[in-house]
Design a protein that fits this description.
The protein is α+β, with helices and mostly antiparallel strands. It has 4 domains: about 140 residues, Protein Transport Mog1p, Chain A, CATH 3.40.1000; about 140 residues, Glutaredoxin (3-Layer(aba) Sandwich), CATH 3.40.30; about 80 residues; about 160 residues, no CATH class. The strands form 4 sheets. Strands 1, 2, 3, 4, 5, 6 and 7 form a 7-stranded antiparallel β-sheet that branches. The chain is globular and about 80 Å long. The two termini are about 40 Å apart. About 5% of the residues have low confidence.
């Protein structure tokens, strides 16, 4: 999870006094739209350094607290750095904090000279143009510069591009972390001539990460760009994670010190005055409570609309069985049904967003609780990124968790990777499996200590409801059994029967009725089916991770 993000750069806006001019420019921009503390200006070796804090609300990541630091750089430049903490995880569709603050666009670049443009750029590279060739050479030099803090995704533009493909690519442009640049086919050839070991594939793309982010180059084929938008989103998420895990450099390091003073005011540095801190971000428990309230309100609204729709559908069905002189009534009800359905669509969207925020709040609370108890695993959970595919996820958790047995078919799980929401599903599946293992561990530890497991260890649902350390998912998405119809229908039971050890069941097979809902009821409605054998062997089995198994609705 990446809740802190940072970047550093240079600004040259043509002011006669660059430092004071930039200070005044950004202050005027911020005054109307940001909660801002006064600038603190200090002097060292005759040069000023200005620092401040700003807070605003982002619709995607919630409350943002950013520290900004400026100081004179070269002859007409100003060095700057921004470090921003978000209430929730930084994601692709959030506004980059330095863009919000105005540190992007003409005159702004990273320390290597790479422009920080608010929108993807086009590289005007033509092999026959001398100025263009010089641009290519300069860009190649920048690729290898340790000062570069911006990853660059170079995308070949050819006659076969589609509007959909371009939109997918532009969606991951996040200046300061990952910038998108389009290049012609002839420009690609010229660039490849200077980078024989780091070539951009024909009609494809290549990602050149910032040197110190510790990532490898990534080649993307045309089919990946066109058909697998989730790969681009995962690439940006991995780059954000790498950036958040790095120690800020340049002026961002000074900004980080300022944020440290806000989070730990009890130990200010000797040479700085105390800060009058901005209002604090809500606690993880408060965030969770607010998210649960949003879910409850959205669920109530959606259920109300659903009840209205069912009433209209029943009346409509009744009228259709009557004589033809009732047809005007049928048309009226059909119109009502269309109106009720139209009202439900935005409510379903609202519910989906609220549930997503709830899941994120539960995850954050789980990490914070582990951190508060100094549990060794909390840093792994906070810093690592989830596997890029479902088969990789299954292999990873099978190796990582000793009380977990994975018997799920990787191919069935891999079918989910084709969907746009696959990354979010993988995160939720990882959180669910992590919770299962924490539950099994807690039960095992209780018995090792010679005490019976408490009520909160009766089953996975009770464990999730308890909210103890290790819980990373909401209890609302856990079901301990299936409906009576499913359990009493042989074909449906067989679909949920998977292999277990003989110590668990002498037949080597068991019905995995318990499941976790990774998303709603819309296809593919991904589910994770598990079998809790903690009262016997101490193990939890994962038998299915994939699209919803057959029922009377899907049969």
């Amino acid at each position: 999870m990446t809740r802190r993000i940072w970047t550093a750069g240079e600004a040259n806006l043509g002011f006669s006094e660059p430092f004071w001019g930039l200070l005044q420019e950004v202050s005027e921009q911020w005054r109307e739209r940001l909660d801002l503390l006064p600038w603190q200006v200090t002097f060292a070796d005759g040069l000023p350094t200005a620092c401040t804090l700003a807070r605003w609300h982002d619709e995607v990541v919630g409350e943002v607290l950013a520290a900004i630091a400026l100081r004179p750089g070269g002859e007409s430049e100003v060095d700057w750095g921004v470090v921003a903490d978000a209430e929730r995880q930084w994601v692709a569709h959030a506004v980059p904090p330095w863009v919000m603050l105005g540190f992007a666009g003409e005159g702004f670049c990273d320390p290597s000279g790479a422009l920080l443009s608010e929108h993807p750029s086009t590289l005007p590279i033509e092999p026959t143009d001398r100025r263009s060739c010089e641009l290519v050479e300069a860009m190649v030099t920048g690729f290898n510069s340790p000062a570069r803090t911006t990853g660059l995704l170079v995308v070949t533009v050819d006659s076969r591009k589609t509007a959909e493909r371009i939109d997918q690519i532009m969606a991951v442009h996040w200046p300061g972390v990952l910038s998108v640049a389009f290049i012609s086919e002839s420009g690609r050839v010229a660039l490849n001539a200077l980078l024989p070991d780091r070539q951009v594939p024909a009609s494809g793309a290549r990602f050149y990460p910032a040197v110190d982010d510790g990532l490898a180059d990534v080649k993307l084929t045309r089919s990946t760009l066109r058909d697998r938008p989730e790969v681009l989103t995962a690439l940006l998420k991995k780059t954000m994670h790498a950036r958040g895990a790095r120690t800020p450099t340049g002026m961002a390091s000074a900004a980080a010190v300022l944020l440290q003073r806000v989070h730990h005011p009890e130990s200010p540095t000797e040479d700085t005055a105390p800060l009058t801190a901005l209002p604090q971000t809500p606690s993880a428990q408060e965030q969770l409570a607010a998210a649960l309230e949003q879910v409850a309100a959205a669920e109530a609204a959606a259920e109300s609309a659903d009840r209205q729709r069912r009433i209209v559908e029943e009346e409509l069905h009744h009228l259709k069985t009557l004589s033809s002189d009732q047809q005007p009534g049928v048309r009226v009800l059909q119109q009502q049904l269309a109106e009720v359905s139209a009202e439900r669509d935005p409510l379903e969207s609202l519910l989906e967003q609220a549930e997503s925020e709830r899941d994120e709040a539960v995850h954050q609370r789980g990490v914070l609780m582990l951190r508060s108890q100094q549990t060794p695993s909390w840093q792994d959970l906070e810093q690592e990124s989830v596997a890029d595919t479902f088969p990789e996820l299954l292999a990873e958790v099978a190796q990582r968790y000793e009380l977990l047995r994975v018997v799920a078919d990787p191919a069935a799980a891999g079918a989910l990777d084709a969907y746009p929401k696959a990354q979010a599903w993988r995160q939720k599946a990882f959180d669910a499996i992590t919770t299962m293992h924490a539950y099994a561990q807690a039960k095992q530890q209780a018995r090792a200590d010679g005490r019976p497991p408490g009520p909160h260890l009766a089953d996975l649902l009770a464990f999730a409801r308890s909210g103890v350390p290790g819980v990373m998912i909401s209890a609302n998405i856990i079901a301990l059994t299936e409906s009576a119809q499913v359990m009493n229908t042989d074909r449906y039971r067989r679909a949920r029967t998977f292999a277990v050890r003989p110590q668990t069941a002498s037949s080597g097979r068991a019905v995995f009725a318990a499941h976790i809902k990774l998303d709603g009821a819309k296809a593919p409605a991904p589910r994770l089916h598990f079998f809790d054998d903690t009262d016997n062997t101490g193990l939890v089995y994962v038998g299915w991770l994939g699209p919803h198994l057959i029922t009377s609705r899907t049969d």
